[in-house]
Structure formats: C-alpha cells, structure tokens
Amino acid sequence: MELKIFDTSDQLDQYAAELFTKLINEKPKAVLGLATGSTPIGIYDKIVDNYNLNKLSFSGVTTYNLDEYVGLTPDNDQSYAYYMNRHLFSRVDIPASQTHLPNGMAPDPQAECARYDALLNEHPADIQLLGLGHNGHIGFNEPDGELSAGTHVVKLKEETREANARFFASMDEVPTEAYTMGVGSILKANTILLVVRGSDKASIVKEALTGPVTTQIPASLLQTHPRVIVLLDREAGRMLD
User: Fold this and answer.
1) Has 137 been annotated as catalytic?
2) CA–CA distance, 158 with 138 (Å, rounded to integer)
3) Does 135 qualify as catalytic in the annotation?
4) Domain for residue 90, yes or no?
5) How many domains is the chain built from?
6) Which of 51, 86, 98, 223 is the most buried (most CB within 10 A)?
7) Which of 135, 159, 207, 235 is catalytic?
8) How large is the angle between the packed helices 80-87 and 41-52, nearest 10 degrees?
9) Which tens digit of pLDDT belongs to each residue from 128-169?
C-alpha cells in the first residue's frame, strides 16, 4: 500500500489527476473505474484542466461507475449519471457509448445487476477511484456480516442517507436503495486509488487501513489488494503514524 498525505486539497487533486493523465497517455484505451460525491470533484476539475491543455484524450477510454441510485432518472440532477456528465463527461472528448453506469430505472434489478457484471468482467478497470464513507463503506457496499462480490442492490444505511442528504432538498428525497459494484469487482482493478479528505474521516481511515480486515468495515478489504494508492489530506491522515 502506497500512502501519501498532502497539505492542501489542491495538491492532492493535482497528484491524482496526473496519475490518470499518465495512465491514459500510456494506455489510450484505458478502463477507468470512477466514483462520485464531493471527494472526486477537484480531481475531475484538474483532469479537465489537463485535457484543455491538450495533455490527454479520452477518445479511446472506457469508464464504469461504482454506483447509481435506484429510482432516479439520468436527467435527475441528483443521479450519478447527471453528476458524471456535469463534472467530467461533457467536458472531455469521451464518446457517450464508452461511459457506463448502472441504470437506476431498470425494470428488472436482478437483470440489471447481471448486465453490469458482464461488462465489468469483460473490462476490468486499470484504475478504480474510491472514496470512503464514515462507516467504512466503499461504493455503496455497507457494513454487514457478509459482502456481495458482484453488482447488487443495497438498502442504504441511515447514516449513509444522512451523509448524502445535503445534496437533496429534504431527507425524504434521499433514495433508500442503490445499485453498487460489489467488493469483488472493485478488487479486480489493477490499481485502486483511495482518496479521503477531512478530520471527520480520520478515525475510519485508521480503522480501514491499519485495523483487522472485516466485512464490518468494507474498506478494510483493500488491505488484501496488491496495489492500493491512498491519498489523504492532512486532516484525514492525522491519526496515522
């Protein structure tokens, strides 16, 4: 595991963006596993800056997102499809046909999970970007007695819904379920890039990276992966030696 702690978010974002830029230049048909939420926004902005400076092209890149809310259409401004278009896809030269997310409006959830898994199995990620939930979730793989390896529908923990409520007009509008890539699919990525910010995440960062490997802290399973890069701001890393 490679661990880097940055004094500023700008430095962290720039470092992560350069990792993506270098990968795409070395492998123009790279497969990217992408994440949403507040954590990656600055990274996507820096990647777009590099694109605008003609440092890279997304024309051959394929992307797969970690998750999507059940019941939100792609044009809903809180869907992850909308988020990705706003923060990355519409700002670079990636063909829409090469961007993939679970379909939150799929009539048959089981069939949708099978469809997405088939794509992931055919195109394992060269790099998988992850954030970290306060309870240790990655994607929407919530703490549990056992974890699903493949794509599945998960009932969101109340603390996860509360953490995401700031993006919605009210708590009642926060979806109760989401599609998520399974831990098994995440661990198939060649490289995993875990990005965490803020003092409120310091405790779970320490547990996930240095504590026992347990399904009660899904991110702890990253300790079993041969190539994990962890990028933290100073506050998120304050409890690590």
Assistant:
1) yes
2) 16
3) yes
4) yes
5) 1
6) 51
7) 135
8) 40
9) 999 999 999 999 999 999 999 999 999 988 888 888 888 888
